[in-house]
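in:
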């Protein structure tokens, strides 16, 4: 930002000087130019006036620029400043900016960050990085105007906050299984003469090691999805294949809880994407449903074409997600029920991975849930043109099962967490 701000300040100074003294800075800029062999050649005989050139450049640049006189009257505001809504005619509407300008009148230069409310800028609050510089007014005792150069740093600050939270969360999540492994190893060493105790602790060590490995793997997957690696070329992918692969990956965990996975919907649908990523996304939705569904229930998974998209839905029969948590279930490490997630070994990254897979494919993921009625997660991926890939029949020629989105009777003691 420093080079941009220096350019803006230079333009403002040039504009002020040009207006006040008529010094042809534009002529200086255009006085000499070089031909293809590096030799100096005369400039155009009629260069633009300095004030016109500087004003045109200020109108084109991204940073917002406001020039204030000692009485806080706006002498100049480029379109970027007026688009922010901080200037109305000759008044600066933000008290914090006015206070900063008055401070700059005394100190000569100052940097600060100012928050703008949604009522001023519209579309949500903004954070602006501001550089205030007092300009020389030329000979005489009169104080010079103050230039405020403002740049929107909202996204940069949001990314910094996300990065800090992510590092803190990763440290916390890694510390839990690593600490458990350390304690279990000490317990195994102390119980070396008790085979039964050693076997019990060894089983727990395997569980914690699996949890640690899953966390590291999902962190790597999430990093790749967020831009660490370029997205592979999108190819025609059979939705039936993706769903079948996800069901196959999840059926062992479902069988352990005697949960039936019912698949169905439209067959032969094709999307453009990366098959491995789509299979991972659907697997995460199914694994999440299995982990947080009570025993002896059903999970439904199916696909249909709607509005140019393929919608893959996964429905469980839990008691649902509280309304205040529904908008956050796709955040990294967010869990509705922390104690339940700890018992199931969830990492809190599964649904975040689903969200990034959907985004990378030009789609989206959403959740419908009602406490007492269960939850339905819907992954939407753009539908490929017909004929993009041959239709693959169901394995062994089996007809798809009825697509029952109800997912069975809700259990009164079903958990409400999601990971």
């Amino acid at each position: 930002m420093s080079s941009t701000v220096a350019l803006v300040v230079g333009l403002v100074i040039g504009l002020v000087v040009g207006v006040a003294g008529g010094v042809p800075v534009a002529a200086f800029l255009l006085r000499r130019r070089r031909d293809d062999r590096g030799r100096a050649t005369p400039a155009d005989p009629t260069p633009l006036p300095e004030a016109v050139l500087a004003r045109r450049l200020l109108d084109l640049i991204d940073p917002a620029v406001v020039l204030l006189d000692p009485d806080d009257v706006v002498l100049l505001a480029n379109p970027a400043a007026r688009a922010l809504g901080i200037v109305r005619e000759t008044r600066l509407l933000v008290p914090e900016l006015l206070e900063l300008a008055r401070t700059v009148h005394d100190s000569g230069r100052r940097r600060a960050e100012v928050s703008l409310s949604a009522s001023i800028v519209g579309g949500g609050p903004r954070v602006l990085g501001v550089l205030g510089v007092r300009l020389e007014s030329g000979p005489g005792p009169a104080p010079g105007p103050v230039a405020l150069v403002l740049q929107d740093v909202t996204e940069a600050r949001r990314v910094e906050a996300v990065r800090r939270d992510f590092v803190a969360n990763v440290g916390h999540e890694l510390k839990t299984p690593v600490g458990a492994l350390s304690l279990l190893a000490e317990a195994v060493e102390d119980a070396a003469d008790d085979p039964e105790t050693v076997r019990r602790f060894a089983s727990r060590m395997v569980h914690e090691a699996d949890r640690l490995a899953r966390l590291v793997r999902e962190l790597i997957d999430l990093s790749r999805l967020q831009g660490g690696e370029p997205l592979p070329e999108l190819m025609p992918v059979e939705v039936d294949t993706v769903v079948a692969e996800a069901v196959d990956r999840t059926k062992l965990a479902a069988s352990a809880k005697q949960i039936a996975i019912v698949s169905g919907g439209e067959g032969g649908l094709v999307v453009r994407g990366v098959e491995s990523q789509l299979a991972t996304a659907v697997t995460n939705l199914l694994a999440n449903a299995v982990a947080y569904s009570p025993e002896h229930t059903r999970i439904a998974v199916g696909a249909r074409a709607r509005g140019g998209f393929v919608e893959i839905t996964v429905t469980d029969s839990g008691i649902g997600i509280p309304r205040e948590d529904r908008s956050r279930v796709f955040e990294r490490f967010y869990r509705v029920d922390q104690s339940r997630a700890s018992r199931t070994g969830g990492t809190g990254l599964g649904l975040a991975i689903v969200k990034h897979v959907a985004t990378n494919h030009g789609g989206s993921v959403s959740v419908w849930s009602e406490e007492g009625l269960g939850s339905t997660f819907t992954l939407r991926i753009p539908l490929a043109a017909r004929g993009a890939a041959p239709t693959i029949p169901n394995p062994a020629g089996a007809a798809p099962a009825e697509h029952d989105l109800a997912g069975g009777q809700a259990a009164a003691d079903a958990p409400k967490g999601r990971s």
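note: The CA atoms of residues 165 and 332 lie 10 Å apart.
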